[in-house]
TrEMBL record, chains A, B:
One of its GO terms (cellular component) is cytosol. It comes from Flavobacterium petrolei. PANTHER family: HTH-TYPE TRANSCRIPTIONAL REGULATOR ISCR, WINGED HELIX-TURN-HELIX TRANSCRIPTIONAL REGULATOR, RRF2 FAMILY. Keywords: DNA-binding. GO terms for molecular function: DNA binding; DNA-binding transcription factor activity. This is Rrf2 family transcriptional regulator. The keyword DNA-binding applies. InterPro entries: Tscrpt_reg_Rrf2, WH-like_DNA-bd_sf, WH_DNA-bd_sf. The keyword DNA-binding applies.
Length: 137, 137
DNA sequence: TTTAAACTCTACTAATTTTACAGAATTAAT
DNA sequence: ATTAATTCTGTAAAATTAGTAGAGTTTAAA
């Protein structure tokens, strides 16, 4: 399941994607439109900025805007940024690989192969969902 | 990601699937073979029993055995039993449906449609992975 | 009928993660 | 200077997860 954070991040990105290009959205504006606690959203937008998905303008009349094209922001990207691995176990993950501490021989693990298959399929599906595809209905 | 509980449940089921039919496995035997804390495993096996995936024989020389065919136990089943919904949000779930509290109009929600697509695809993938398919390499 | 060896059940606890909130610092426009 | 915004760090409550404890129940066999 997605965490609230990821869900809020997606809703914020959707809001930004719906604005005119060059429009700069204040945090409070996004928070109200998308029903997100403002202080929590501040953190999320900072994370999105560090992930280079959004840009910001500081100071008075500042705010946030999409940095990447909405076609280039996928559900997989945002999931990885906030919730981490797509795979069901770290040992089956591409970007968050970690060995299982209780695993004697990874190549012998019956579970791992199946989980890699799942990861490949869900990843493909999640990469197919972009902010753009969500916005256009 | 899978919880430890789900991972342990799968490992326990894999162990049971590898035994001869009619063989009854003691909890301690499974725990040692699959590196699972015994007391934790007891709970897990009880849950698997309540889910009708395994059966048990009580008393001396008792233990656990597969109740369903290993072809009929899917990753989706076990995920649902221990970790709940396959979908990324409750509002996109079949078996664990719940309305989002912050959602004004569900039919208008841009996120939900995409998440339903994802759920359909991951569910199909997870239903394709059975204990049998995992055991036979 | 007693004992041993197993499952069954409920409750508890510790650690971790999630979900925020608070407030000071910084930046930029007027 | 002042105002209005982002930025940064730290804190805290709530929920979840992972695991432990211990008493109870069942069954087989001596």
């Amino acid at each position: 399941m997605l965490s609230q954070k990821t869900k809020y991040a997606l809703k914020a990105l959707l809001y930004l994607a719906e604005q005119d290009v060059d429009h700069i959205s204040k945090t409070v504006e996004i928070a109200e439109a998308a029903s997100i606690p403002k202080k929590f959203l501040e953190q999320i937008l900072l994370d999105l900025k560090r992930g280079h998905f959004v840009g910001s303008k500081q100071g008075k009349f500042g705010g946030y805007y999409l940095l990447k094209s909405k076609n280039d922001i996928t559900l997989a990207d945002i999931h990885r940024l906030f919730d981490g691995a797509i795979a069901l176990l770290p040992c089956a993950s591409l970007n968050f690989y970690e060995r299982c501490s209780d695993c004697v021989d990874e190549s012998e693990c019956l579970l791992r192969h199946g989980l890699i298959t799942i990861r490949e399929e869900t990843l493909k599906a999640m990469q197919g969902i972009t902010i753009a595809s969500l916005v256009k209905k």
